[in-house]
Amino acid sequence: MPFAVYVLGLAVFAQGTSEFMLSGLVSSIAADLGVSLAAAGLLTSAFAVGMVLGAPLMALVGRTWPQRRALLFFLAVFVAVHIAGALTPSYGVLLATRFVGALANAGFWAVALTAAVSMVPDRLKGRATAVVVGGVTIACVVGVPAGAVLGERWGWRAAFWAVALVSLPAFAAILRSLPGGVRGDGEAAPVRNELRVRDELRVLTGPGLRPTLLTMALVQGATFCAFSYLEPLLTRTTGLGAAWVPAALALFGAGAFLGVTVAGRYADRRATALVAYGMVALALGWSALALTAGRPVAVLVLIPLLGLLAFGTGTALITRLLGQAAGAPTLAGASATAAFNLGAAVGPWAGGLALDAGLGHRAPVWVSAALMGLALFVAGARRAAVAVSGVRVTE
């Protein structure tokens, strides 16, 4: 495996840490900047909104740039906004840096996956993709808990500095190890194929894919709604000390890593079954967490299980979407990223509304259970419509 592929994985690790680390920092950010927990939670939503808008846009832009130049540009912007975020005393500026950082993250993702598979023979393309995507799950296991530890000991700004510093070796290695003349979609000539783009958009906006994208957004909304406010739930309802927060986040990340691994092995053959069982289990799991939030043992058992179910189900949904959108190879991944992050934007916002309404720190978890109920309704309505029309459901 080329060294450059692992470099891309390192950069994705830093970006994944940034996307998820606020779940362990919301209380300290809120206290330091003088804002509510709900406002601090919106920093996660701002990042997700940037990913939603940036994924399809940057996928198109990145197709026409040399890979090395595009990756260096996006990573430089990502580092710069984290330095700005670490320095600013303004909530508004911090909110803006999260949005811009997400645009850069989306652009990096759009090019990095293509760059990774273009550097290896066909038999290693799956492994190359796994190395890059694995940066996110490792971020959940290692980066997010480490960010929580840094935040507890030296303040939330230390976590932002750490993300910027971890990104710098990746920047230097990309500069040295990647070829500079290959276009973002892996071809040598910067020629736009506008007809192909229109055809792909037609595929992605068709009635067959819309329910899958909506289901994906709702599942991820449920995940991020509870995950964004996990720290105040643990410290103010469960009764665990702040030192337990990194451990709980690591448990969630370990479950997420296992879920992605299992789904990656079986989703090609059993995507629909994995999605159906996973969604039902998530609806029950979030409800169980809300009901048992005052019992530390139950909470610490449920957290890794919910990480496994959330990321395993999400991976199976992505697999099913990519299979349904075979006619849109450039934009299918961007659409999956956009749906994923639409949920990541709506979830913390909905959880914040519940908190602001005075419903208590369990309220975001109940909102997660409700979002899963809505996802089950959407999926059930789709299957009913397919059954009535007589069209076979795509696995």
What can you see in these coordinates?
With 395 residues, the chain is mainly α. It has helices at residues 3-20, 26-33, 37-62, 67-87, 91-118, 125-154, 156-177, 194-204, 210-228, 230-238, 244-291, 296-324, 332-356, 363-389.
- Write down the Rg: 20 Å
- Biggest beta sheet attributes: none
Strand content: under 5%
What is the helix content? over 70%
Which regions have little confidence, pLDDT < 50, spanning 5+ residues? Answer: 183-192
Give me the oligomer status: single chain
Shape: globular
pLDDT average, as an integer?
A: 82
In DSSP terms (H or I, runs of 4 or more residues), the helix count works out at: 14
Instruction: Give the CA-CA distance, first to last residue.
Output: 31 Å
Instruction: State the secondary-structure class.
Output: mainly alpha
The strand count comes to 0
Output the helix-strand order. HHHHHHHHHHHHHH
